[in-house]
Amino acid sequence: MDKTNPPVSATAYRRQRQIEDCLYENLQQRPYTSVSISDLCHQLGISRKSFYNYFPDKDTCFRAIISRKLHTCILRLSSDLPENTTEEAAIAYYLSYWKEEKGLFDIIVRNNLLSLLMDQCIYFLREEDQSILPFLNTPRLKADAFVLSGFVTLQVTLILQWYLQNFSTPLDEMVRTYQRLVYYPLISRS
Q1: Residues 6+ apart with CB under 8 A from 138
Q2: Residues 66-102: pLDDT tens digits?
Q3: CA 123 to CA 9: how far, in whole Å?
Q4: CA-CA distance, 108 to 115, in Å (whole number)?
């Protein structure tokens, strides 16, 4: 699903990020369907061919944005939290990260991109990110597509519901809900 061409140099990496950032900025202001590849190329001063060197289409570019945010979340979890962090603290940190990413959920909800988000989350956990498995301490995410799909669906639904409530539910209550609905069922079945 994620068909981005890996950048081969620091310059290529910067260009890919510029394209992603340009799309993200546009989507904060305009509907998904009204942002064209031509618009992005014009704003960045690049050719369509240059865009296609990095992404085969706009959906893939948006998937790369989602993957970057997921990767940042996991990187922060693995680097910012001490090794002896309680599960409650880790879950609170995780949920707080997504609360900070309100702009992403604004784009997803406003443009009805939930299925794209879910697909990319599943792909990311299955194919890209190896560090999530030790954090969750369960190999079933990789081994069982149904468990992985259910895990992602529960997580995204829970966070999306929190977003739709304008994050009004207190964080400690969200942590308990996450433990009850997402974390404990997954760990107890491993």
Answers
A1: 186, 187, 190
A2: 999 988 988 888 788 888 888 888 889 999 999 999 9
A3: 25
A4: 9
The span from the CA of 82 to the CA of 86, in Å, is: 9
CA distances from 151 to 2, 26, 40, 51, 156 (A): 20, 31, 34, 34, 9
Q: Using alpha carbons, select from 154, 117, 141 the residue that is nearest to residue 189.
A: 141
Tokens of 144: 């069982």
Tell me, letter by letter, the H, E, C secondary structure of the chain.
CCCCCCCCCHHHHHHHHHHHHHHHHHHHHCCHHHCCHHHHHHHHCCCHHHHHHHCCCHHHHHHHHHHHHHHHHHHHHHHHCCCCCCHHHHHHHHHHHHHHCHHHHHHHHHCCCHHHHHHHHHHHHHHHCCCHHHHHCCCHHHHCHHHHHHHHHHHHHHHHHHHHCCCCCCHHHHHHHHHHHHHHHHHHCC
- pLDDT per residue over 108-160, tens digit each? 999 999 999 999 988 887 776 555 555 555 566 666 777 778 888 888 999 99
Q: How far apart are CA 141 and CA 145, in angstroms?
A: 7
- Its pTM stands at 0.85
Using an 8 Å Cβ cutoff, are 187 and 138 in contact? Answer: yes
